[in-house]
Amino acid sequence: MLDKNVLEYSETLKKLGINHSILEHPELVTVEDVQKYLGFGLDEALATLIMKTEKGFVAIVRRGDCALDSKKTKKVLGVESLSMATDDEFRQITGVVPGAAHILHPVTKVIIDEKVFEKEKINGGSGSLLYTFRYDVGDLKKIPQSQIADVTKLTVSTVINKSNRVFSGIRATGRLHLGNYLGAVKGFLELEKTGKYETVYCVVDVHSITTPYDKEALAKNKREIIIDYLAAGLDPKKSIIIYQSDVPEHIELAFYFSSVVNVARMLHLPTYKDKIKQHPNAVTMALLNYPVLMAADILIYKAGLVPVGIDQEPHLEVTREIARKMNQLYGTDFPEPVRFATKGEYIPSLTGEGKMSKTIAGSYINLTDSLEEIRKKVRSVPTATTAGGEMSSGVKTLFTFANLFMPEETVKYKKAFEDGTLKFVELKDALAEAIYRELKPFQERRAKIASDTKYVDEVIRDGAERARKIAKATVDEVKKKMGLI
Ligand code: ATP
Ligand code: MG
To answer: Whose alpha carbon is nearest atom 7 of ligand 1?
Structure first.
């Protein structure tokens, strides 16, 4: 159902003869994420800046891959001072939230950068974070009070990644928790739903052996994660769902990649440092190679988009470096993958320290936990207040959860916290119930899928077959280009 304001805006545009179609997406804030989700580059995005000058406010509409050139802009506007409006001023002037600006700004002058007109179609905000309008660029000349001018320069950093594959994986080191679900699996689902990408989702069982593990538990957990994927709603007809070890080409490619990776670079990664702190007696080659294997997982499918939590950003940086190095040295055509971020990209630990992790006891709530277990775990979050009455990290954690699981009630609890009248146990119990409400349908679906052994086996077998075809082609190409065949 379209938002009433979005419909009104669409009508106004139609009356002005500005042709457009309306695209729908999940709630995404940055222009970059919207474009990635819709399958376009930043060069096909309109980004509006509201700027303050001594003569008043002005709206500047430019392409997402162009940065404002303030010298040129001041000259065009004939002003001395030019600064960004604050978020509040933005809201007042545009009447919409930051990130969703329209192209019509009845109360201000509008400057449209001339590079916008190098495109045929372009996407712009709709006033809602759930919709984007795709315009015929020629029609933008009909925007009232607008002027076309050269006010930007191109930025090189926004290389457009045209890959239409998506890859992501989760280690089989335990049962899935809220962080895995909100930071990763929700992104898997959103990208699968677009129908625009070939999505490959993996249980990275080989990555699980890079830290100490129990072999019976690994064998059990890896299957449980496939069941979690299916219960979360992944559709094996749409996505390729696999165990990493069923496609041994990942490991072969990782070894080839390791020939272009510097050891010192791996030793300095924050993720490596965290893991050796967690397991000081298990500093292995496998652990050092973790990011190289992850690069192989992604690049073997030439995936351009990777739905993972923010903790994985350093590994994606390594993946891009490997892609660039391989392309330079051997003429391969690997994309430089980017992260697809969700609202839950960082879910804090219940201990009030660091992130929720499968392998850190007491840090997580599993997707399969009962209401009783969830209540007990949420009650364990430390809520001692700091001397100045500021939020301690445990309290911040509770409010992060409240924002995600019961956004309407958060304001009430926040106010009580500020007034000093908040009873933490009430907030905690309400939170436990809200979390359980979200997980209950998942748990019900899960029970059905888990009992259908044949179906799960078939998903795993079929996924491996489809994935190996793609993986083998990439490995053959790399071997040829590296002089191995
Ligand atoms: P481990 O302790 O074994 O490293 P983990 O909980 O960190 O387990 P991973 O298998 O390493 O889970 O990561 C799986 C996916 O879940 C990745 O995309 C990762 O970014 C995401 N993820 C993990 N923890 C969180 C978190 N706390 N918040 C958001 N996303 C997370
Ligand atoms: Mg991890």
So the answer is: 357
Please report the pLDDT score of residue 103 as a whole number.
86
Distance 270 CA to ligand 1 centre (A): 15
Q: Which ligand is nearest to the CA of 359?
A: 1
DSSP3 helix / strand / coil % (the chain, rounded to 5):
50, 15, 35
Q: Identify the three-state secondary structure at position 219.
A: helix
Average pLDDT over residues 85-99: 85
**What does the DSSP 8-state code read for residue 43?**
G
CB-CB contact of 311 with 270 (8 Å): no
Q: Residue 59 forms beta bridges with which residues?
A: 50, 110
Question: Which tens digit of pLDDT belongs to each residue from 252-261?
Answer: 999 999 999 9
Question: What is d(CA 479, CA 313) in angstroms, rounded to the nearest whole number?
Answer: 28
DSSP-derived letter for residue 119 is S
Domains of the chain are 4-154 (3.90.960.10), 159-344+453-481 (3.40.50.620), 371-451 (1.10.240.10)
Contact of 171 with 294, CB cutoff 8 Å: no
Cα 446 to ligand 2 centroid, rounded to whole Å? 23
254 φ, ψ (degrees, to nearest 5): -60, -40
**Nearest Cα residue to 225 out of 171, 269, 178:** 171
Q: By percentage, how much of the chain surpasses pLDDT 70?
A: 97
Written as six digits, the tokens of 456 are 């799960």
What is the per-residue pLDDT across 326-383, written as a single tens digit (0 to 9) for each? 999 999 999 999 999 998 999 999 999 999 999 999 999 999 999 999 999 999 999 9
Which of the ligands is closest to the CA of residue 202? 1
Q: Helix H segments across 16-58?
A: 31-38
The Cα 456–Cα 225 span in angstroms is 11
The continuous run of DSSP H or E covering 338 comes out as: strand 338-339
| Residue 436, both tokens | 């359980």
Which pLDDT belongs to residue 160?
47
Task: Determine if ligand 1 sits within 6 Å of the CB of residue 312.
Answer: yes
Q: State pLDDT tens for residues 269-280.
A: 999 999 999 999
Q: Where are the beta strands (DSSP E) in 69-210?
A: 82-84, 109-113, 121-125, 131-136, 146-149, 152-154, 165-171, 198-204
Cβ-contact 306, 345 below 8 angstroms: no
Strands 56-63 and 46-53: antiparallel
Bridge partner list, 63: 46
What is the pLDDT at residue 173? 95
Sign of CA dihedral 270, 272, 277, 278: positive
Query: From CA 352, how far away is CA 187, in angstroms rounded?
Result: 25
The confidence band for 189, taking pLDDT boundaries of 50, 70 and 90, is: very high
- Which of 237, 187, 177 minimizes the C-alpha distance to 455? 237
Q: How many CB atoms are closer than 10 A to CB 71? A: 10
Q: Which atom of ligand 1 is nearest to the CA of 204?
A: 10
